[in-house]
């Protein structure tokens, strides 16, 4: 698409990546898969290094690992699940780190692509959260979890005609959908914004009379890069705490 | 305006238009409206929500942590609507 | 609306479709790798790499709790010592008060006794003095009566140029003296 001299790359050039190997097979390994793998490996590396140290006063990597464990414990599990939530710590912790490292590659040079701007990672994690909170509900309350969620107590009988379909859609359909779409759309929007301003900067560089506007565009690019750092953290946090809230709702349905 | 534009274009060149081109044009011209309309409600909602959260934090600074967590949750729920609008934008524009 | 209708018409008219890439749908391979990498991370973290970190944190927590308990024990020991000291001080103060009170009582008793003795002595002396005064007064009165009688009889016999019977004169004087002594102007 060409607007004046501004040539915006086709969307598939922005989000689709060629396979590095295994092209055509279901195991095609491209940049997205590489980022996912790197996110997993970095997280594992952090905890591997942190676990090998036993300093009384934590520093460096150990401090990072322990701070993040405390963060998940105090900021995600405590408000989201409440008591009995300690056993979901490993899952929520790996979820947070996986998402954060998948997000943050959107602003790291040479990557310049958040893995979560493709639907695969959000979809997988949202489905996992969905299966997980339904599983927790079924495990702790049996089938009465489903009936309790669909037929909330204290509602007049006639209203169930209205309430039950709404509850079904909002609890069992909208939750995983909104979880995945929120993360994906946030990251894709940020990615497209960064691409737009980068393209604008490059184009302005070549246009002699309009090069005066380049600082504005560059400033926006830098500001948005800073904003994307915030978004990367915030979206990982929101995804994790919403998963925790859903699990908490399944664990203590009375609240 | 976009409707008129599209209609006029369609009327003029209906014969030479392929279906895909017509769809791409109509989609592209309505995509902006789709996202713009979808952003109104969440914009108001998030503004109101954050304003109320700031009031709450100013009144009771000792409960700021709890208010902040709840605020982020509320923002996440409200923002989902705008983001669905963004997805619709992408679908209209590029698919 | 018009545009949509036209679009639908155009679409049904020509069946020609170009292959467009949907930027939203993920590819199967990406889903595969996301599942593999996330489960790799989750399982390794859950069973291998998180427990040591948690153990270190727990140990530190435990140590902290012990240190805090020890500190609290020391604090309560100090509190006990302070309380014992306070108690001893209070006891000593009470004892001192008791001693002071006892001494004061003793002094009071002694003083009262001395006062009573002194009072009695003074009273006795006053009694004696009064008796002496009364005796002297009686003697003086007696003497005075005799002299007054003599003088009066003498004077009267000089006035009437004859001797008056002494008995009658004595009676008159007696009456007079009694009157002056008892019913005189006070």
What is the β-strand count of chain C?
0
- How many domains make up the 3D coordinates of chain B? 1
Question: How much helical structure, as a percent, in the residues of chain C?
Answer: over 70%
Task: Please name the CATH architecture of chain B.
Answer: Up-down Bundle
Main sheet overview of chain C: none
The unreliable regions of chain C are 4-18
- C-alpha end-to-end distance of chain B: 22 Å
Count of helical regions of chain B: 3
Task: Specify the oligomeric state.
Answer: heterotrimer
Beta content of chain B: under 5%
Mean pLDDT rating of chain B: 83
Helix/strand class of chain C:
mainly alpha
Question: Main traits of this protein?
Answer:
heterotrimer, B: 95 residues, mainly alpha, F1FO ATP Synthase, 3 helices, C: 186 residues
Folded structure, characterized:
The complex is a heterotrimer of chains A (255), B (95) and C (186). Chain A is built from eight helices and two strands; from the N terminus they run ββαααααααα. Chain A has 255 residues and is mainly α. Chain A has one domain (2-251). Chain A has a two-stranded antiparallel ribbon. In chain A, β1 (2-3) and β2 form a beta hairpin. In chain A, α3 crosses α4 (89-104), α3 (60-80) packs across α8 and α7 (160-206) runs antiparallel to α8. Chain A is globular. Chain A starts with a strand and ends with a helix. The model of chain A has no long low-confidence stretch (mean pLDDT 88). Chain B contains three helices and no strands. Chain B has helices at 2-13, 19-59, 64-94. In chain B, α2 (19-59) runs antiparallel to α3 (64-94). The mean pLDDT of chain B is 83. Chain C has one domain. Chain C has three helices and no strands. The longest helix of chain C has 133 residues, at 28-160. Chain C is 88% helix and 0% strand. Mean pLDDT of chain C is 82; it is low at 4-18. Chain C has 186 residues and is mainly alpha-helical. The chains are: A mainly alpha (255), B mainly alpha (95), C mainly alpha (186). At the B-C interface, α1, α2 and α3 of B face α1 of C.
What would you say about this model in short?
Chain A is mainly α. Chain A has helices at about 10-15, 30-50, 60-80, 90-105, 120-140, 145-150, 160-205, 215-250; strands at about 1-5, 5.
